[in-house]
């Protein structure tokens, strides 16, 4: 039996997207986990309750992702849950997570494209968010 697409809150939708984007390459590394926690603690749309339930929500996201067509179900559920004014906020959170390890692999790039399309993020909006994320993750070493 196929897993139904859950009805998510906007906050749960963003967590699902972050978890999905971080796991797309087969694992979630420590810097991505730390970034998900930082986003939930620091973005004003999240509450202490979301932080307390982060593991539970992440496990639910993983279960949906593992179902038949799971990636598309997560994107669809998130798009349904997010009001238009939070789409770029969600995309910014996802970009923060996938750039946390200072590299992007082809799977992560494709996932960003799918999320951007699913949330109807404009090319200009996506470019600005991605540029800002690169700037936030710069270190003292010059990029290659």
From TrEMBL:
<protein>
    <submittedName>
        <fullName>Tellurite resistance TerB family protein</fullName>
    </submittedName>
</protein>
<dbReference type="Pfam" id="PF05099">
    <property type="entry name" value="TerB"/>
</dbReference>
<feature type="domain" description="Co-chaperone DjlA N-terminal">
    <location>
        <begin position="12"/>
        <end position="129"/>
    </location>
</feature>
<dbReference type="InterPro" id="IPR029024">
    <property type="entry name" value="TerB-like"/>
</dbReference>
<dbReference type="InterPro" id="IPR007791">
    <property type="entry name" value="DjlA_N"/>
</dbReference>
């Amino acid at each position: 039996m196929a897993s139904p697409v859950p009805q998510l809150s906007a906050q749960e939708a963003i967590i699902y997207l972050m978890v999905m984007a971080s796991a797309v390459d087969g694992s979630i590394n420590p810097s991505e986990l730390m970034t998900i926690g930082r986003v939930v603690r620091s973005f004003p749309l999240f509450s202490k309750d979301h932080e307390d339930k982060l593991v539970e929500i992440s496990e639910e996201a993983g279960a949906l992702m593992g179902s038949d067509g799971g990636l598309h179900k997560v994107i669809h559920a998130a798009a349904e849950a997010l009001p238009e004014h939070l789409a770029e906020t969600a995309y910014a959170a996802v970009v923060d997570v996938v750039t946390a390890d200072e590299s992007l692999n082809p799977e992560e790039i494709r996932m960003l494209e799918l999320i951007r399309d699913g949330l109807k993020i404009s090319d200009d909006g996506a470019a600005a968010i991605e540029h800002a994320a690169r700037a936030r993750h710069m270190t003292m070493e010059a990029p290659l």
